[in-house]
Amino acid sequence: MAKLKVSSLRSPESAPAAAIPIPPTQRLIRGWEVDTERVVPLSLLEHHPDNDRIVPRLGETDFHSLKTRIEKEGLQEPLHVVQDGAGSRLLVVSGNERLRALRLLRVQEVPAILKEFSSSEEMRNHILSANLGRKNPSRNPAHRLLAVFPQAEYPRLYENLQGKKGEVVEQQRAMRDRVSTLFGWSLEFTNKTIRKTQRNKTVAATITLDPKAKKRVDQARTELKDIRKRLTSLEKDKDKINAEIASLKRQASVRQRIGAKFGISL
Predict the structure, then answer these.
(1) Which domains can be identified in the chain, with CATH numbers?
(2) What SS3 class is residue 198?
(3) Distance CA 74, CA 15 (A)
(4) pLDDT of residue 256
(5) From residue 98, how far is each of 7, 144, 200 by CA, in Å?
(6) Smallest Cα–Cα separation from 151: which of 201, 190, 217, 213?
(7) What is the predicted pLDDT for the residue at 16?
(8) Is 196 exposed, middle or buried (0-12, 13-18, 19+ CB in 10 A)?
(9) Alpha-carbon gap, residue 40 to 123, rounded angstroms
(10) Residues 138, 147: contact at Cβ < 8 Å?
(11) In what order do the strands lie in the sheet with 37-41?
């Protein structure tokens, strides 16, 4: 009978441990300094979830022009990316439409700059500022404010505290100072912009909706206008019908009195 080697009898616990694989994104991030450029695989890049909410998607014609330009001239500027919280993904904060075009063109690698932000507001402002050249409503200061500081997330910023005192007023002042610093606005201009959003509540609803939701809201708004027109028309018809009923009742009453006068039931 053949003898077994000692090594073949070694328990699984004593076998050398296999190296733990390092995720591709983490391998890429190692040694990558903030605000420097690297060539990265397109497969590691994803759209940032805030992008569509802050910056409207390009229309079909504009997107086709962008795709054609990239195909002919190449990528003129690197994409801007950040790590997600787990460090397992790279999210594009500037260049989401270019990323979409690059995927359709089957590009394998692209230049990208690693960014880092101290707060979500700073990151949102970067997304917005990087797209100010595009034709979108975010060039309006009120839209810009609401995109970076959504009213649902920062109600105290937009609250009307006129005549009030104390800690809540100090908190609001600190928030508005932060907004002014982030956007490079004066405190007076920040307060003026906030007052505009308070006067026009529909601005807040528009800026926080994604394209699909906005389409549904616009459709509902149009249908509501039609319903109100029909109701107004029916109300007018109702008044006309009620007047005609009252007139007929008066005429019937007169005829009944004539019959009663002669002792005849009509």
Answers:
(1) 22-136 (3.90.1530.10)
(2) helix
(3) 51
(4) 77
(5) 56, 22, 33
(6) 201
(7) 44
(8) middle
(9) 21
(10) yes
(11) 37-41, 109-114, 79-83, 90-94, 45-47
> Is pLDDT of 237 > 60?
yes
pLDDT at 117 over 70: yes
User: What is the bridge-based pairing of β-strands 109-114 and 79-83?
Assistant: parallel
Residue 92 φ then ψ, to 5°? -85, 120
Q: Residue 24 has what pLDDT? A: 58
Two structure tokens written together for 85 = 């919280």
- 166 pLDDT more than 70: yes
Q: What sign does the CA torsion over 211, 212, 213, 214 have?
A: positive
How confident is the model at residue 119, as a pLDDT? 81
Residue 26 is encoded by which pair of tokens?
Answer: 């983490």
Neighbours of 226 (CB within 10 A): 9
Place of tokens 């100090």: 170
* Pair of tokens at residue 53: 């909410």
Task: Reply yes or no on whether the pLDDT at 180 is more than 70.
Answer: yes
Q: Is the pLDDT of residue 232 over 70?
A: yes
Tell whether the model's pLDDT for residue 70 goes beyond 80. yes
3-state helix, strand, coil in the chain (%, to 5): 60, 10, 30
**């009213």: which residue's tokens?**
151
